[in-house]
Write a structure and sequence with these properties.
Blueprint lengths: L5 H18 L13 H12 L3 H29 L3 H17 L7 E6 L2 H9 L8 E5 L2 E5 L1 H4 L9 H7 L4 E4 L2 H18 L4 E2 L4 E5 L1 H6 L4 H16 L3 E6 L9 E2 L4 H9 L11 H9 L8 H5 L1 H6 L1 H4 L1 H9 L16 E11 L2 H22 L3 E10 L4 E12 L2 H5 L10 E9 L7
Parallel strand pairs: 2-4, 7-8
Antiparallel strand pairs: 1-6, 1-7, 2-3, 5-6, 9-12, 10-11, 10-12
The chain binds a DNA duplex (9 and 13 nucleotides) through helix 3, strand 3, helix 7, helix 12 and strand 9.
InterPro entries: DNA/RNA_pol_sf, DNA_pol_Y-fam_lit_finger_sf, DNA_pol_Y-fam_little_finger, DNA_polymerase-Y, DNApol_IV, PolY_HhH_motif, Rev_trsase/Diguanyl_cyclase, UmuC
Pfam families: IMS, IMS_C, IMS_HHH
Keywords: DNA damage, DNA repair, DNA replication, DNA-directed DNA polymerase, Magnesium, Metal-binding, Nucleotidyltransferase, Transferase
DNA sequence: GCGGATCAC
DNA sequence: GATGGTGATCCGC
């Protein structure tokens, strides 16, 4: 095999490009590309180069490349005997059926606090106003102020990398108790508008305001303005909202027309990476099979390919994404619906088994404490640990009785088969998903 | 049921 | 010098 074929060169240059993008972190592509993102990515990559973290990312990137090669081979094979016109016609039929399920009667709102942790810090320390600062926990950023974001600083980024991008960056330590305090307050406000509202993390949620608007003879827009004003009045924090007939997240503060055509126009140019569930890897895989512009509009033009790759990508999920149809029911999760509880710690590399077991004991004790608070019990104990190479191992064991004690959690020590640990995670499942 | 991977926040 | 913690889900054994 000649190693300098055009295809080879292409694959290799793609690989470095995707690695550089990967190193920029999971949230970098999410907010839309900055003008000088290439330069930012270069700085990040240079700062990482040579580290074990970098080597691990390189390995994972390579694995995705191999996955892509397999998928392309499969695609080529499946395409050989494919009557494209016929498949497209049957896809069009399926799309019609899905279109019939579109329900435009519900007023669904997605509310999302602006730079939540950062703005809470700003609230409690006004001297941060206008400054480039970020909130940091365990060496990793959880939020960045809008001023800092201009430098390419993003949540999920290592603090020392952020400092390279923005040397004057002020680092503020996480204060979790403070955020949950305010989170409770905000969720309380959202509840007044929809008692069944569904929180998504501590700073955002989905509301169905159909009933509220009916009862108070309000339009959705008026209602959402009132929600946002109430949050600001009671917390002095700002919130953005998107209004739509289902849970597809609109962009920022936005009301989507309640009309199939307008919704499809919206998704047509929407980068597929912004769709919940499409992350960095799926974006790369989809790009490889022809979602070239990486927008949802390409789902339609590539419907024949996608139909033969149903297994890999989920045909109906993608078609519904193209149509801009998603669930429009909002329901709070009940405590009973929770499926697992866990505790995780990262530490500097431990080599001696005794030290590792001591750490494991700490994590087990922490998990037992959290379990007691909620009266939680489970049947499957999973141990996850990470080596200093960032390689992760998982070992699970299901038992025939309910586990609640730290002694039983600590028993996972039998499953450790390495040293050089930097992270330990113990997870307890209430019930594993039943096989179909 | 288990282990690896991906994803969201 | 250095890259988090919690919970969910899907796929291929």
């Amino acid at each position: 095999m000649e190693s300098n074929s055009p295809k080879d060169t292409l694959v290799r240059s793609q690989e470095t490009e995707s690695l550089v993008k990967r190193l920029a972190g999971p949230s970098s592509g999410k907010a839309g590309l900055a003008k000088d993102q290439t330069e930012i990515n270069r700085i990040i990559s240079d700062a990482s180069k040579g580290s074990k973290f970098y080597e691990n990312e390189k390995k994972k990137d390579k694995e995705v490349t191999v996955r892509i090669e397999k998928i392309l081979k499969y695609k080529e094979e499946a395409f050989k005997n494919l009557d494209v016109a016929k498949v497209e016609a049957s896809m069009d039929h399926l799309i019609e059926q899905l279109e019939e399920q579109r329900d435009l009667t519900q007023l669904i709102v997605h509310v999302d606090m602006d730079a939540f942790f950062a703005n809470v810090e700003l609230l409690d320390n006004p001297s941060l106003a206008g400054k480039t600062f970020a909130v940091v926990g365990k060496g990793v950023l959880t939020t960045a102020s809008y001023e800092a974001r201009k430098f390419g600083v993003r949540s999920g980024m290592a603090a020392f990398i952020a400092k390279k991008l923005c040397p004057h960056l002020i680092l503020v330590e996480n204060r979790h108790w403070r955020y949950s305090e305010i989170s409770d307050q905000i969720m309380g406000i959202f509840h007044r508008y929809d008692p069944d509202m569904c929180p998504a993390g501590c700073d955002e949620g989905y509301l169905n305001i159909t009933a509220y608007c009916e009862e108070h003879a309000m339009t959705a827009e008026e209602c959402v303005r009132e929600i946002r004003e109430t949050v600001f009045r009671e917390t002095k924090l700002t919130v953005s909202a998107g209004i739509a007939p289902n849970k597809n997240k609109p962009n920022g503060q936005y009301q989507l027309d309640f009309d199939a055509k307008a919704i499809k126009a919206f998704t047509h140019d929407l980068p597929i990476r912004k769709v919940p569930g499409i992350g960095r890897v799926s974006e790369r895989l989809l790009e490889a099979i022809g979602i070239k512009a990486s927008t949802c509009g390409d789902i339609y033009t590539q419907r024949a390919v996608i139909s033969i790759m149903d297994k890999q990508f989920g045909l109906v999920y993608l078609l519904r994404t193209y149509l801009g149809i998603s669930s429009n029911t909002v329901q709070a999760h009940t405590r009973e619906e929770r499926k697992s509880i866990g505790a995780e710690r990262t530490f500097s590399t431990l080599h001696k088994l005794d030290d590792i077991l001591a750490k494991l004991d700490e994590v087990a004790a922490e998990l037992e404490k959290d379990m007691q608070e909620d009266g939680w019990v489970g049947r499957t104990i999973t141990l996850k640990y990470k080596l200093d190479t960032y390689r992760v191992f998982t070992r699970a064991k299901s038992v025939d009785h309910w586990v609640s004690k730290k002694e039983e959690l600590y028993a996972v020590r039998q499953m450790i088969h390495s040293s050089h640990l930097t992270n330990i995670n113990i997870l307890l499942d209430w019930q594993r998903p039943a096989p179909p």
